[in-house]
Amino acid sequence: MVACTDEVATIFNEHGFEQPERHSIGTVQIKTTSAWNASEFKDDWPLHYKVQCQHELNVSGVNWGLMAVLVGGQKMANLPFHKNDSFCDALIEGEAGV
User: Given a cut of 70, is residue 41 above it in pLDDT?
Assistant: First the structure.
């Protein structure tokens, strides 16, 4: 399994200073989509984006990420996500069978 993340993010505390006990690195995916697809981002986001994000977390070994999607060139959707171990296990099994 391989993955290529668009960017890496770091969490800072409320004052903007890193604290080792709170320091955490996550992945960032950056996407654009047409206004025709805006309804796909109202309550949730498309499955193929979820699969890509979980695959990336599994390969990179981090536990969280953020997907930034520019919808229709006008609206930005920031979609945080966490690693889902059972989803990743099923993904590994599915990819092994390909």
Answer: yes
